[in-house]
Amino acid sequence: MFDPAARAALTSLPQIPLSSWPTPIEPMPRLARAIGTRAELFVKRDDAIPFGFGGNKIRKLRIVAAQALRDGADTLITCGGVQSNHARATAAFAARLGLRAVLVANGSRPDKPTANALLDRLLGAEMHYVLSREARDQAMQDIAVRLRAEGQKPFVIPLGASTPHGAAAYALAVAELLAQIEPPHTIVHSTSSGGTQAGLVAGCRLAGTGTRVVGISADEPRAALTAVVERLIEGLSPVAGNSAALSASTPAVEIDDAFVGEGYGVPTAGSTEAIELAAKTEGLFLDPTYTAKAMAGLIAYARAGRFGDGERVLFWHTGGQVNLFS
Predict the structure, then answer these.
(1) Cα(192)–Cα(263) distance, rounded to whole angstroms?
(2) Which of 133, 163, 193 lies closest to 60 in space, CA to CA?
(3) DSSP alpha helices (H): ranges in the chain?
(4) Which residues contact 47 (CB under 8 A, 6 or more apart)?
(5) Helix (H, G, I), strand (E, B), or coil: what is residue 36?
(6) CA dist list (Å): 142 to 65, 77, 99, 273
(7) Residue 124 in contact with residue 99, Cβ under 8 Å?
(8) What is the rounded distance in angstroms from the CA atom of residue 324 to the CA atom of residue 326?
(9) Weakly modelled stretches of the chain, pLDDT under 50
(10) What percent of the chain has a predicted confidence (pLDDT) above 70?
(11) Spatial separation of the C-alpha atoms in residues 104 and 139, rounded to whole Å
């Protein structure tokens, strides 16, 4: 049972009203047969959120953007790569709320925008480009200082909306999940900036399910990302009413960085196979940067016999298919 006090604290957080919840859960029997596992495979379809082309960033921004409105913001500032799903989602929220969107992207301005970069333009976002990922945070702060000097009220959203409030969205998502199906034995998902995983781990601790949460890294080394997730769970505690359950040892923060390959956004043989298998067996589309590598991890675990017969394994689809067209 989900900790009642924590649930009350989390549900009391202001949220942007979007009428697209819960996201569906679907079985994946054909994929299970194709990869030779007797585990029961399911997928939680956050990619099917209708607003802003969906994905986990939409779920997080329901709460994080509500913080911005509470603070009287007139501008949302965030960052990512040129094809950032999070930047696109932030621009969509800004458009819906009548706010200005300022996006800092590491990379070069594309001659002909495609995929998320095209959507950023259609959504009216103001783009700034920097040379490296490391330069993004300072650029956001510099822009915020300038806008405040001009009398505006910017609200800076960190990469991926991975804040304690962003993680709170995924703690609540666990409660949503448990109203739909019996607790999975294992959840597999893509992890990068840490907020989604922090919320899933926290939610499973608050519900006492014992569910294992496996984050397949899209870029960061395991040790560094583990520290980020643990710090976000700690920051989530006061948001969730300081529940003692958050300090439980299970589920542990479990991150596998063996599927990154040559780097962020660079396809691997496993991720390419995952994209093709998911599409051919279930009509399910993955993206090459995040969910394909996470699914490659799930497939590898299944083939290695790491899921037992009849075990409920849930793949949490965090979206991003727009990048199939980049």
Answers:
(1) 12
(2) 163
(3) 4-11, 29-35, 56-70, 85-97, 115-122, 136-149, 164-178, 195-207, 222-239, 269-282, 291-303
(4) 54, 55, 285, 291, 317, 318, 319, 320, 321
(5) coil
(6) 21, 11, 19, 42
(7) no
(8) 6
(9) none
(10) 100
(11) 7
Mind giving me the DSSP string for 92-149? HHHHHHT-EEEEEEES---SS--HHHHHHHHTT-EEEEESSGGGHHHHHHHHHHHHHH
C-beta separation of 323 from 317 below 8 A = no
How many residues make up the chain in this entry?
A: 326
20, 84, 192, 237: the catalytic one is 84
d(CA 81, CA 87): 8
pLDDT tens for residues 260-282?
999 999 999 999 999 999 999 99
Nearest alpha-carbon partner for 41 in 311, 271, 319, 317 = 311
Please, which residues bridge with residue 76 across strands?
A: 101, 155
Counting Cβ atoms within 10 Å, is residue 98 exposed (0-12), middle (13-18) or buried (19+)?
A: exposed
pLDDT score recorded for residue 18: 86
Q: What is the CA radius of gyration of the chain?
A: 19
Q: What is the pLDDT of residue 320?
A: 96
Q: What is the pLDDT of residue 56?
A: 98
HSE on the CB side for 127, CA within 13 Å?
24
**Cβ-defined contacts of 147-150 (< 8 Å, 24+):** 147/75, 147/77, 147/102
Instruction: Provide the edge-to-edge strand list for the sheet that holds 126-130.
Output: 126-130, 100-106, 75-81, 154-156
Query: Does residue 271 have an active-site annotation?
Result: no
The one-letter code for the residue type at 11 is T
Instruction: Give the integer Cα–Cα distance in Å for 108 and 131.
Output: 8
Handedness of CA 8, 54, 270, 276 (dihedral sign): positive
